[in-house]
Every structure is written in C-alpha cells, then in structure tokens.
C-alpha cells in the first residue's frame, strides 16, 4: 500500500497549482475587461454596454481576494508538509512539491 504522506503531497501540490492558476486567470480576465471598457469608451459605445462590462469587472475583482486567500492557505499547507516530511526528500513527489512552492512564491501575499 502506498504511503499516505505521498498521497498528501500529491493532493496539496495539486491544490496549490490550481489555486495559483485561478488567481492568475482572474487577474488576466480583469485586465482584459478593463481594456475592453477603455476601448468601448474611446469608441463612444452606449453607456448601457459599458456599465454591463463594468459590472462584469466588479464580479471578477470580487472573486480575486477569495482565490488569493485560498492560494495563501494552500501554499502554507504545502510548505508545512515539506518542512515536516524531510525524510521523503529523495522522492519525486517531494521534489515536485518543492518546485511548485518555488513557482508559486511570487504570487503569495
């Protein structure tokens, strides 16, 4: 039977990757919507459509803090797991987890 600690590494690594991807995706979406609103304003588009895009932007920006909070928690869980399971240092999942921590570190608040 597989070591349950290895399973935890797989789970926590996956969660951290997914949360980071979500945060980046929502930030990119918000940026695209802002550009679209600016373009619509420059072109003189009807105010109704601009307001609809603004509402969409607000919804996207409201989701980002929650995603960031989940990313921070997942990152903390993974780093704690890495620190407590030093005896698995030679395993592939341990090395993969360390790599995810390095990749995700710039996006942690």
TrEMBL record:
Residues making up the signal peptide according to the UniProt record: none
Complex and partners: Supercomplex made of cofactors A to E. Cofactors A and D function by capturing and stabilizing tubulin in a quasi-native conformation. Cofactor E binds to the cofactor D-tubulin complex; interaction with cofactor C then causes the release of tubulin polypeptides that are committed to the native state.
Native source species: Petrolisthes manimaculis
GO BP term (any one): post-chaperonin tubulin folding pathway
Protein localization: Cytoplasm, Cytoskeleton
Family: Belongs to the TBCA family.
Gene Ontology cellular-component annotations: cytosol; microtubule
Gene3D superfamilies in UniProt: 1.20.58.90
PANTHER family tied to this protein: TUBULIN-SPECIFIC CHAPERONE A
GO molecular function list: beta-tubulin binding
Domain of life from the UniProt record: Eukaryota
Pfam families named among the record's database cross-references: TBCA (PF02970)
InterPro entries in the cross-refs: TBCA, TBCA_sf
Name the UniProt record assigns to this protein: Tubulin-specific chaperone A
Keywords noted in UniProt: Chaperone, Cytoplasm, Cytoskeleton, Microtubule
